[in-house]
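Lab channel / #folding
Pinned by the channel admin:
"Please post every new chain as: sequence first, then the structure tokens as a reply. Keep commentary short and put observations after the output so the thread stays searchable."

First post following the new format, from NK:
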Amino acid sequence: MNTANEELQLKRRKSWFGRMLDFVEWLGNKLPDPVTLFFLFAVLVLILSAIGAAAGWKAINPSTNEEVAVVSLLTAKGFQEIMTKMVKNFAEFPPLGLVLVTMIGVGVAEGVGLISAVLKKVVLSTSPKLITISIVMAGILANMAGDAGFIVLPPIAALVFASVGRHPIAGMVAAYASVAGGFSANLIVNMLDALLAGFTQSSAQILDKEFIANPAMNWYFLAASCFIIVPLAVWVTEKIVEPRLPVYKGEKQALEPLTKEEIKGLKWAGIVTLVYLGLVALTVVPENAPLRGENGSIIISPFMSSLVPFIMGLFLIPSLVYGAMTKEIRSDKDVAQAMAKAMGTMGMYIVLAFFAAQFIMYFNWSNLGIVMAIKGAEFLKDLGLTGLPLLIGFILISALLNLFIGSASAKWAILGPVFVPMFMLLGYDPAFTQLAYRIGDSITNPITPMFAYFAILLALAKQYDKKLGLGSLIAVMLPYTIFFALAWISFFVIWYFLGLPLGPGSGIYLSK
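Reply from TO:
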């Protein structure tokens, strides 16, 4: 096993692609500790905000027609903002609460052995050849649950890989890359589809007041994309990522058959899970359910905003039943101890989250991101490209901007009013422009530190390799971005030439 892995690593180093990844890893690992790095980023933003404000960096926001100028944070008012909102920035950092709340349920599930038993059951009943594709497919589909997939799936994937002697970091990054890089690909229309369609509609109505955007306007293409992204992610994981990682020398979970107590516990945990899911369905399925949104919407509704508490319950309640059946839980103290133990493992992430939260908020306050996005859009518009080259350029500029602005809706609110009308004047359906944007917005998700969940991934990876640096993590994530970009853009070009519909009632060109 070791010899085979060493031969793969040697072969990898001899290829130009392998040498490029080695250079990325070397360069990235020369950077300071991620905590220090986020601190330095925050300081850099403060300096750039002062320079930008003094130089008069500004732009016109196309969505509001209002001037946006870079704001200096190195002023008395800026200092007040930094000091008075430091705690608030940390406490309201979106991923922080999501992670810690989810870990309450996950911690108990892990503490009582439920996760171990489920993984053992899965591994014993699943061919090893299907483990990677199962994790990747779960990652692609996870965006139906919003951002929850970033929190729940990577640690579970790491445990699955470790249980069969494969490197847990390979499983973790495969899950993360699938959730992040394939964020727009899905078999089912979800909340992001509806959210972006709203911005597309308002952008299109700049020219056509009667235009109505359908949330499923990209559904055919994005559903078909799953059959491109899934096998590609599996290939990248097994042929590029895993060979780069050292042989996993951690403890391999024993795969003896489940005991009678474990089987009984799993049975009752499964029954309780079904009951729980039935009760959850009652909050949203009936016509007048309490967690439906306006006009009975499920996609944009209180239910979608409640997924994290529901996921916590999905882990916690079956775990209590399982623990009681297997005698792992004998009192409420055992439950509290399991929760506390789970929180204890999140120390590094909490520290990272503090500095990441300050950096991201400073970036937002300074308006640097908005001005960069607008200027980038203007640059592409001024290149004078037309047709397919312009569309591909739009994908690439969206991918580049995604390195600096993580929110898909925030970028589309800026880019949509520029590019949707522009492409409409060239005869393209707003659905096609939105699709180009969504590809660009997805492909660089795996490697951008501005994506809040990247800090979570780094903290989790350090549990398996304490010496893992930012460069090593980016080096194993970068192949997903490169190959997703090549495959997705190629698929986009093929779809363009075939002239296939993008979704119900939506095509490449405007109907005449």
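NK: The chain is about 70% helix and 0% strand.
TO: also worth noting, The chain has a mean pLDDT of 82.
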